[in-house]
Amino acid sequence: MRLGILISGRGSNFEAIANSIARGNLDAGIAIVISNRANAAGLEIARERGLPVRVIPSQGLDREAYDALLVDELRTHEVELVCLAGFMRLLSAHFVRAFPDRVLNIHPSLLPAFPGLDAQRQAFEHGVKITGCTVHFVDEFLDSGPILMQSAVPVLDSDTVETLSARILAQEHAIYSKSIQLVAEGRVTIEGRRVRIREEDVS
Ligand code: GRF
């Protein structure tokens, strides 16, 4: 399955996906890495690995015009599944319709709790005892599409936002690759808000 990865910053989720592929745990290939920011650290990781990279800045473009550029680039690289990995832009309905049920995102909370920015801090300051991360299909609303996989992370008395975020991030890295593998194996179907995962074939 040909992946298009969209990033804006550090790129650790992208790197975890690339590592899963390199280790043979994820049956996919990265067709293109796109960033809306030229200084995204993740771009360097992609270049070092010899992956195709493209910077598409969004300045001066409205959302639909920008998303049309993204769609063109992803289609040029024959992308079959779009993976948002710290991509700090809301996508338009136009974009979502171009890749129906084929756009995933990772979010650092147990959605629908704490959508939006700084989710780990939101959870920490709210005082929840359990938070975590979510892989979900993307619709045109913020952090709102059908949920594919979640991992729970307990909040410890000794935690700071930083230590909590680090444990959540480790789970993000684990469940994003697993989720992509399930899609690649054709085991995932969306029924309304519910995502069903077919049992593994044991033949
Ligand atoms: C992650 O916490 C992810 O859940 C959120 O943005 C952050 C991106 O981190 N959507 P990285 O760029 O993958 O390191």
Which labels suit this protein?
single chain, 203 residues, alpha/beta, Rossmann fold, seven-stranded mixed beta sheet, two-stranded antiparallel ribbon, 6 helices, 24% strand, binds 5-O-phosphono-beta-D-ribofuranosylamine
Q: Span from first to last CA?
A: 22 Å
- Low confidence ranges: none
CATH topology: Rossmann fold
Write the CATH architecture name: 3-Layer(aba) Sandwich
Query: What is the count of structural domains?
Result: 1
Q: Indicate the proportion of strand residues.
A: 15-25%
Q: What structural class is derived from the secondary structure elements?
A: alpha/beta
Task: Tell me roughly what share of residues is in helical segments.
Answer: 25-40%
- CATH class term: Alpha Beta
Mean pLDDT: 97
Question: What can you tell me about this protein's structure?
Answer:
With 203 residues, the chain is α/β, with parallel strands linked by helices. It has one domain: Rossmann fold, CATH 3.40.50. It is built from 6 helices and 9 strands, in the order βαβαβαβαβαββαββ. Helix 1 crosses helix 6. It is globular and about 50 Å long. The protein starts with a strand and ends in a 6-residue tail after the last strand. The site of 5-O-phosphono-beta-D-ribofuranosylamine (GRF) has 13 residues, from helix 1 and strand 5.
Describe the structure concisely.
This protein has 203 residues and is an alpha/beta fold. It has 6 helices and 9 strands; from the N terminus they run βαβαβαβαβαββαββ.
